[in-house]
Design brief:
The chain is an alpha+beta fold and 327 residues long. It folds into three domains: 75 residues, Arc Repressor Mutant, subunit A (Orthogonal Bundle); 76 residues, Arc Repressor Mutant, subunit A, CATH 1.10.10.10; 144 residues, 3-Layer(aba) Sandwich (Trna Endonuclease, Chain: A, domain 1). The chain has 13 helices and 13 strands. Helix 2 crosses helix 3 and helix 5 crosses helix 8. The longest helix has 24 residues. It is globular, with a radius of gyration of 25 Å.
Length: 327
């Protein structure tokens, strides 16, 4: 077992101790090494490196160690732990934030809230609150205002605002899927509006329905010098190669454009994907299919991160990634 694997095991044990019922938060490194058949010197070397980074700490003499809030956050960020356990704790934090925000909004006595009132309304156990309070304070979402009293920070309020906004986009998208109170033609325009709003939230600069020299472009996204011309389609049948050619002509007419993005809730024909692959050397056209778009509206991934994945496959492997399939 190499050093990185040992460090990962230590962080995993520390995380389970912080959040799993019946698991002690502090543990003995000597016993841990013996159980996992790790050389004692190797275990201490891994511990020393983790401690120097602030990810783990010495709890007591004799090899007793415990996690730090920084270490717990690091394990979550790098997905080193049981993701179901993480999702549960993340939901606890979100419920606490939403509830604290609601209480503060209706409070007549200021923004400092008693923790018992808070967790009772949130429906969160004392243990779940205790497990997550330090982490929420550590990352600046809440502030301890003395014994048993808390308030929400501006960062916490921003997370609540973002959460509510994403939920609203998701609800609107679900109504579009059901054609609820809208025509098929209107649905395409509403999809453009939602994708544009999400891109703005991700710090892209956005222009919608740009008209110039007889052309209309649904959306233009840019950050700095990086530009993408976007076309949004919600047809009955999969997109044909002519849509790729049309978007390519618009991209190539603008020297500074990095490429085009073709959003399609109707999918793409095989010929359409082949046309994108054929044009890689001259014009970058990136497809977002129905499963991709669903993931964005279910908050599973951002447009930016998904775009990075798709461009990586196209530029490094000449593959077209669409709906989690390499084609």
């Amino acid at each position: 077992m190499d050093n990185d694997e040992i460090k990962k095991l230590i962080l995993q044990r520390a995380y389970s101790g912080a959040f799993e019922d019946g698991v002690s938060i502090e543990f003995n490194l000597h016993e841990f090494a013996e159980i996992n058949r790790i050389n004692n010197d190797s275990a201490w070397k891994a511990f020393d490196e983790l401690q120097s980074l602030g990810l783990i700490k010495e709890y007591a003499l004799g090899g007793w160690i415990a996690p730090t809030s920084t270490g717990l956050l690091y394990s979550e960020k790098n997905k080193l732990i049981d993701m179901k356990l993480f999702e549960y704790q993340n939901n606890v934090r979100m419920q606490l934030l939403l509830t604290l925000n609601n209480i503060q909004e209706r409070s007549q006595s200021g923004n400092i809230i008693n923790w018992m009132e808070w967790i009772k309304e949130a429906g969160v156990s004392n243990q779940d609150f205790s497990n997550n309070e330090k982490i929420m304070s550590e990352i600046g979402l809440i502030r301890n205002q003395g014994i048993h009293y808390y308030s929400m920070t501006l960062s916490g309020k921003e997370i609540v605002r973002d959460y509510k906004m994403k939920n609203q986009w998701h609800e609107i998208f679900e109504k579009l899927l059901r054609l609820e109170g809208i025509t098929e033609q209107q649905r395409g325009h509403e999809l453009e509006n939602l994708l544009a709003d999400i891109a703005v939230n991700e710090k892209w600069s956005v222009n919608k329905r740009v008209r110039s020299q007889g052309q209309e472009i649904d959306i233009i996204l840019h950050v700095g010098l990086h530009y993408f011309l976007c076309s949004c389609k919600w047809e009955k049948d999969p997109i044909q190669p002519n849509e790729v050619e049309l978007l390519e002509s618009r991209v190539r007419s603008r020297a500074t454009a990095n490429g085009g993005i073709l959003f399609s809730m109707s999918g793409f024909t095989d010929n359409c994907i082949e046309e994108m692959r054929f044009k890689i050397s001259s014009c970058l056209i990136i497809p977002f299919g129905p499963d991709d778009i669903n993931k964005i509206f279910h908050n599973e991934i951002t447009i930016s991160d998904m775009l990075d994945q798709k461009i990586d496959q196209t530029m490094n492997h000449r593959k077209i990634l669409v709906d989690d399939i390499l084609r």
